[in-house]
Design brief:
It is a single chain. The chain is an alpha/beta fold. It has one domain: Alpha-Beta Barrel (TIM Barrel), CATH 3.20.20.70. It is 29% helix and 16% strand. The chain has twelve helices and 13 strands. Strands 1-13-12-11-2-3-4-5-6-7-10-9-8 form a 13-stranded mixed β-sheet. β6, α8 and β7 form a beta-alpha-beta unit. α2 crosses α11. The N terminus is likely disordered. Bound molecules: S-adenosylmethionine (SAM) and iron/sulfur cluster (2 copies). The site of S-adenosylmethionine (SAM) has 20 residues, from β4 and β6.
Length: 370
């Protein structure tokens, strides 16, 4: 991965400044990238490790025991993540998602959740705190996450047929344990759960109707994600993508659905509801119906790099800034100047990308968490 130290532009308050001046905050709510997009959400990857080897994310031929995973000192500490989150929130970020790798593998994650849940009080504004997990150890962790103040949860599950799911996770992990994790989350009081299903044509698309039937009427929103060409190791090709429209057609034939309005501008998933009133489903169609024009998301990788796109091939080194005595104001300025130079719109130009060349090497999904 290419590392690049961002140019820091400090307009005022040189030296250590304990807080971020109001005028800077006000300026940031107006700060847009070169395509007019504001910065609204932040995804933070808390570990590059995972107990699954999903073929579309961490294929085991590459992510084997010799893979150079990050050492503990390379990871941002809980204090560093909280400080960075506070600065982002002060600058107008409204939504934080913890991800990975498998975030629940990060030791004492609930302690981080508790620290982040307090940020909304520090910045005195709403801050949505969510987490995406493969659900494998959710039964063990659900109560602690709820008590720590996590607001919402998304669980990934690619099918209900054990053979198919095991083929996808590639570590023989059974469906029942993920379903049990979902039940545990409901038991401790998480509501509005979401389940993400990556659809790979020819691998698990026969699971679409079964998944829809299972979650219909359960209060859980099932979301279908098109298989994406993230990273440089998952062997993606267009023939394995089942367009969301096709998924919607198949579901509509079994259980009639209709599209509904987005909850907020820039919502990534397109929402549909069952005509019989038994809930809604979502589609994340980053391949066939791109949404770069309203992408308001930044990502912090496990090793503290800020990425401006899921498909980026380089990040901006915020770990060095955090560890070199920079003030909150300097870091805030660095975030703003990085964001204002953003021009990413990979999905819109996917076809013209030179896949496979060195210059097109992209950051792995497990570093930045989807
Ligand atoms: N380990 C956690 C999990 O699986 O939920 C969090 C990290 S995972 C990288 C975040 C999300 O990215 C998951 O819902 C996963 O299914 C999705 N994902 C990973 N690789 C993908 C790909 N190639 N195309 C589409 N979605 C992908
Ligand atoms: Fe692990 Fe999530 Fe990637 Fe699957 S999608 S390998 S569970 S990080
Ligand atoms: Fe955002 Fe990049 Fe995805 Fe476009 S391709 S929606 S810019 S993350």
């Amino acid at each position: 991965m290419v590392e690049k130290v961002i140019p820091i532009r400090v307009d005022e308050g040189k030296g250590l400044t304990p807080s971020i001046p109001g005028q800077l905050v006000a300026a940031n709510t107006l700060t847009k990238d070169t395509r007019g997009r504001p910065l609204r959400d932040l995804r933070i990857s808390v570990t590059d490790r995972c107990n699954f080897r999903c073929t579309y994310c961490m294929p085991k031929e590459i992510f084997d025991k010799d893979y150079p995973y990050l050492s503990h000192s390379d990871l941002l500490s809980f204090e560093e993540i909280t400080r960075l989150t506070t600065i982002f929130a002060t600058l107008g970020v409204e939504k934080i998602r913890l991800t990975g790798g498998e975030p629940l593998l990060r030791k004492n994650l609930e302690v981080l959740v508790e620290m982040l849940a307090k940020v909304r009080t520090t910045v005195n504004q709403p801050l949505d705190l969510t987490l995406t997990t493969n659900g494998s150890i959710l039964r063990k962790k659900a109560a602690a996450l709820k008590a720590a103040g996590l607001h919402r949860l998304t669980i990934s599950l690619d099918g209900l047929n054990d053979d198919i799911f095991k083929k996808m996770n590639d570590v023989d992990f059974p469906v029942t344990d993920v379903l049990d994790g979902i039940a545990a989350a409901q038991e401790v009081g998480f509501t509005n759960l979401k389940v993400n299903m990556v659809v790979k044509k020819g691998t698990n698309d026969q699971e679409i109707i079964g998944m829809a039937k299972h979650f219909k009427g359960s209060g859980v929103t099932l979301r279908f994600i098109e298989f994406m060409d993230v990273g440089s190791s998952n062997g993606w090709d267009m023939s394995q993508v089942l367009p969301s429209q096709e998924v919607a057609n198949r579901i509509n034939a079994a259980f009639p659905i209709e599209p509904i309005e987005a909850n907020y501008p820039g919502e990534v998933a397109q929402r549909w509801r069952y005509l019989d009133g038994s809930g809604e489903i979502g589609f994340i169609s980053s391949v066939t119906q791109t949404f770069c024009h309203e992408c308001t998301r930044a990502r912090i990788s496990t090793d503290g790099q800020m990425y401006l796109c899921l498909f980026a091939n380089e990040g901006f080194d915020f770990k060095t800034l955090l560890r070199s005595g920079r003030s909150d104001l300097e870091i805030a300025n660095a975030i703003m100047s990085t964001w204002s130079g953003r021009n990413d719109h990979y999905s819109e130009i996917r076809g013209s990308n030179t896949a496979g060349s060195k210059s097109s090497r992209k950051v792995e999904m497990s570093y930045i968490g989807g």
